[in-house]
UniProtKB/TrEMBL annotation:
Keywords: Membrane, Transmembrane, Transmembrane helix. It is found in: Cell membrane. It holds the Pfam family MFS_1. This is MFS transporter. Its main location: membrane. Residues 23-406 form the Major facilitator superfamily (MFS) profile domain. The keyword Metal-binding does not apply. It comes from the Bacteria.
Length: 410
């Protein structure tokens, strides 16, 4: 049995009778993301513990690995989106990306304690994520009515976050059982393979999405970035991305500032994920009503507060949990909301390319930010590093809030 949906189904119904249920395509892709995120977050949860307390990496090395993570994702985002648009086969392209990430997990045991080897394997893993992200988000955008895109992305990201919650728990359980990191990595590969199979056999995209496309040169496809509303969006999103801390760096900073046991480090992402899960769908509905760009900026404001808490308070368990909760709200207000905002601004035949290009700008900016802040923590006291970050992030939010043209917000 296939999970399927078409936009024409909604169009054929009388006004006011369009079903409010989330389209099955969105739910199917959400299930794929859920299983895949269990796989991915198992690795992500143990990496800081492994790198810092096993291999001996510092904040600079963590920042560089996070930057490599984001850069590898960015490199193939546009390529994946363009190929999906060119072939009219977003599901096939997304499947390649998911499969590449799953297979990469088998390289982690081979890399062992080599930072260069780990970096290479993680680059392949993130490249797979880059390939799949644009086509997947394009399928969501095409499957849901334009006025409920925030809700659709919120539901998808909520399901994704369930996986982000289960991943650290599974990793912590395996580490507690002292089965070794290799078992974590192989289990991650197995779950990633399950995600690929769900996508192949239980998700169908609408015929309108899979129809053949006219050949469009890459330069023409990327010209959507020059449309004024799209250009303002990616410029602002890139500026804000420069001043966001990589997740691994933030988790290690919180663990060390709060003097938490090292064994707790793999569980810190759980606090972020719980908040994200609870808030993703409600925040998506709020974005549809209040304005997606406003919610996107508000999310960065919450992140700024989290930075101030980590840098300037007598941090302990309560402040650590609060900062992680704000971190989760930041993701709920920005991840899917940005795609819901910019998606309707991009013509449907070029939507996967356009969405991937916007995400690429954001990912490259975050890569630079991760390396820069990791270096700052390496040479400066955390208070000064987080203070400087909060100041520049606040300025970036103000720039993003400057008056926009009427057509900029769908």
């Amino acid at each position: 049995m296939y999970l399927s949906t078409t936009r024409s189904t909604d169009a054929a119904r009388p006004a006011g009778t369009v079903a409010r249920a989330v389209p099955p395509t969105v739910l199917g892709l959400g299930m794929v993301s859920l299983v895949t995120d269990v796989s991915a977050e198992m690795v992500t949860a143990v990496l800081p513990l492994y790198l810092v307390y096993g291999v001996g990496a510092g904040f600079l090395q963590l920042g560089m690995i996070e930057g490599l993570y984001a850069t590898a994702t960015a490199v193939l985002r546009v390529a994946g989106g363009y190929v999906a648009d060119r072939l009219g086969r977003p599901k096939a392209v997304a499947t390649v990306g998911y499969a590449l990430s799953a297979v990469a997990k088998l390289g982690l045991p081979v890399a062992g304690g080599s930072l260069a080897g780990l970096g290479a394997v993680l680059t392949v893993d993130r490249a797979g994520k880059g390939i799949r992200t644009g086509p997947r988000d394009a399928m969501i955008t095409m499957a849901a009515p334009a006025d409920r895109l925030g809700r659709a992305f919120g539901v998808h990201r909520a399901m994704d976050t369930i996986g982000a919650m289960l991943g650290p728990l599974a990793a912590a359980a395996l580490v507690t059982l002292a089965v070794g990191y290799d078992t974590v990595f192989v289990t991650s590969f197995s779950l990633g393979t399950v995600g690929v199979l769900i996508l192949l056999f239980f998700v169908r995209v609408p015929p309108a999405v899979t129809s053949p496309r006219h050949r469009v040169a890459p330069r023409v496809a990327l010209s959507v970035l020059n449309r004024p509303p799209v250009r303002r969006t990616w410029l602002a999103a890139g500026l804000l991305g420069l001043f966001t801390v990589g997740d691994m760096v933030l988790y290690v900073a919180i663990q060390q500032r709060a003097a938490l046991p090292t064994a707790v480090l793999p569980l810190l992402p759980l606090a972020t994920a719980v908040t994200f899960l609870a808030a993703a769908a409600p925040v998506g509905r709020l974005a549809d009503r209040w304005g997606r760009w406003r919610v996107f900026l508000a999310g960065h404001g919450l992140l700024l507060v989290a930075y101030l808490l980590v840098g300037f308070t007598a941090i302990g368990w309560p402040i650590a949990v609060l900062a992680l909760g704000l971190h989760g709200l930041f993701y709920a207000a920005t991840d899917g909301v940005l795609m819901a905002h910019v998606g309707p601004l991009i013509p449907e035949p070029l939507r996967a390319t356009g969405l991937a290009a916007v995400q690429t700008v954001q990912a490259l900016a975050r890569a630079a930010g991760a390396v820069g802040f990791g270096a700052a923590l390496q040479v400066a006291a955390p208070q000064w590093a987080f203070a400087g970050l909060a100041v520049v992030l606040g300025l970036a939010i103000i720039v993003g809030a400057l008056p926009r043209h009427q057509g900029d917000t769908p």
